[in-house]
Design goal:
122 residues, seven-stranded mixed β-sheet, four-stranded antiparallel β-sheet
Length: 122
């Protein structure tokens, strides 16, 4: 069982930046692939970004490409999401996710964090 805990959410003005962190614990393994999803009010949860265990494969949703950067530090069992040039449309609860299979981590990951709220004011 893997536990995922997000941090770093908050309120920021449009054009600003935030960095989210997600620490994994429990039956962790450096071979876990990790991802970020988000869910805005009244909308379905959507994929944001994913990173393979080695960091060699990275994938972004078109809506965040060029503005968000995903990274990880395996020695700390932690992944990050650097979010720049934020807009009100980025307002959502952001969830950390993990899975042993890279394709699954971008669609139906097995493990989820509790979420952290990101609010971007105009």
């Amino acid at each position: 069982q893997v536990q995922l805990v997000e941090s770093g959410g908050g309120l920021v003005q449009a054009g600003g930046s935030l960095r989210l962190s997600c620490e994994a614990s429990g039956r962790t393994s450096s071979s876990l692939h990790m991802a970020w999803f988000r869910q805005a009010p009244g909308k379905d949860r959507e994929f944001v970004a994913a990173i393979s265990w080695s960091g060699g494969n990275i994938y972004y949703a078109d809506s965040v490409k060029g503005r968000f950067t995903i990274s990880r530090e395996n020695i700390k069992n932690t992944q990050y999401l650097q979010m720049d040039t934020l807009t009100p449309e980025d307002t959502a609860v952001y969830y950390c996710a993990a899975d042993s299979y890279f394709l699954k981590v971008t669609t139906e990951p097995r493990s989820w964090g509790q979420g952290t709220q990101v609010t971007v004011s105009s």
